[in-house]
Amino acid sequence: MRPILFLLVFGVTGLAVLVSLGNWQVRRLHWKEGILAEIEARIAADPVPLPTDPDPERDKFLAVTVTGRMEPGEVRVLVSTRDSGAGYRIIAPFVMQDGRRILIDRGYVPAMDKNTPRALGPMTVIGNLHWPDEIDGFTPEPDREANIWFARDVPALAAELGTEPVLVIARSKNDPRVTPLPVDTAGIPNDHLQYAVTWYGLALVWAAMTGYFLWRSRARKQS
Predict the structure, then answer these.
(1) What single string gives the DSSP state of each residue in 71-132?
(2) Strand partners, 67
(3) Cα(107)–Cα(149) distance, integer angstroms
(4) Phi, psi (deg, nearest 5) at residue 160
(5) Where are the transmembrane segments (predicted)?
(6) Model confidence pLDDT, tens digit, residues 212-221
(7) How many helices (H) and strands (E) does the chain have?
(8) What is the chain's percent helix, strand, coil content, to nearest 5?
(9) What is the pLDDT of residue 168?
(10) What is the pLDDT of residues 98-151, one digit of tens each?
C-alpha cells in the first residue's frame, strides 16, 4: 500500500498546485481586464487642457487638447503598420499659445513620403499624453544625418527638438497626408488566459498520469 499511498499523495499535491496556479492566472486575467478597461476609458475621455506639469505616471494616456503652432524641424521614427507597411512616425515641435514647446506625434507617413512637406502653422491638436517605453539594449542609436530614429525616447526627442519632455500622440487629423496612430491598448500584453489554459491543461495531464500510475500499481499488486 505504501507505493500507492505515495503516488496518491504526490498526485493530489501536484494537481492542487497546478490548479491553484491556473486559478491565480484567472484572477490576474480579471485584474488586467479591469486595468485595460480603465485605460481605454481614459484614452477615449473628453480632452482637457494640457496640465501645467504633466506626470508620466499620473497623466499617462490623459486625453488633452492643445492649441498653438506646429513648427518645422520634425524627427522621423521608423515604424511598421499592419495595413500600410514600413513608414515613419512624424514627431514635431509644437508651440502652444502660452509659449510652451511640446512634442506632437502627428502620425504615420509611408516611407516614400518621408520628405513630403507637411502642414505647419496654427492648429488645434486633440490627442493623448504618453511616455512610450520603447528603448532596450538592442535599440540602435538614431541616424541623425538621415533623420531616422528607432524609438520614441521622449527625453532624447525633447533635447533634439528643444521642447519639454511632453509628448501628445494625435488622434485628430492635422494634415491630410499624415495618418494619426492614436494610443490604444493593443500593445499592452494580456496573456493570462493563455497561461491559465496552460496550467489547467497540465493539471488535466497530471491527473490522467496519476490515475494511470495508480491503476498500473494496483494491477501489478493484484497480479
Answers:
(1) PS--EEEEEEETTTEEEEEEEEEEEETTS-EEEEEEEEEEGGGTTS----EEEEEEEEE---
(2) 124
(3) 14
(4) -65, -40
(5) 197-215
(6) 887 777 776 6
(7) 3, 7
(8) 40, 25, 35
(9) 98
(10) 999 999 999 999 999 999 999 999 999 999 999 998 888 889 999 999 999 999
